[in-house]
Specification:
two-stranded antiparallel ribbon; 4 helices
Length: 158
């Protein structure tokens, strides 16, 4: 049944709406089960958090720190910008509430994907494996070096 549905999805495209004769799904989906409309929004999520208020003094101070001239008070532009700032503060406060207990507080998780047991060696040592020359050991192969840097002769006349 699932294979047949996936094959229908592949050959029909994702534009057909799945119709079930007995019950209508809570969310309208295509033949692959992908919702046709968003099922949630950031605005909807943030509406559950308390709305902060920004004082006029703080609003002016933010503009001063940004080296900007604030719009005149009691204008539509002032009200709209203040509302936008308050929504940004709400977003920041919501992000601060996220619990990150999975990681120790003093480390940053490595987001790279590696094969199990493999990874990028991060040591800065100049050890070599076998006959392979790596890192700073390559400098000894250069014809000229100065203070641990390669020296490249360049003709300054053009």
């Amino acid at each position: 049944m699932l294979v047949a549905r996936l094959l229908r999805c592949r050959y029909r495209g994702r534009t057909t709406v799945s119709k079930r004769p007995l019950t209508k799904p809570a969310v309208e989906t295509d033949a692959c089960g992908i919702p046709l409309n968003p099922t949630w929004s950031v605005k909807e999520l943030l509406s559950s958090y308390p709305s902060p208020t920004l004082s006029s003094t703080t609003f002016r101070r933010l503009h001063e720190l940004s080296a900007l001239i604030p719009p005149a008070e009691e204008t539509l532009e002032h009200a709209e910008m203040k509302t936008e700032f308050e929504e940004l503060v709400r977003l920041v406060e919501a992000v601060k509430l996220v619990q990150l207990d999975d990681y120790p507080s003093d480390t940053i998780p490595d987001g790279r994907v590696w094969a199990e047991g493999k990874g990028l060696p991060l040591e800065s040592s100049s050890s070599t494996e076998g006959d392979e020359v790596q890192g700073r050991d390559l400098l000894r192969l250069a014809s000229r070096t100065l203070d641990g840097m390669y020296v490249v002769e360049a003709n300054s006349k053009r």
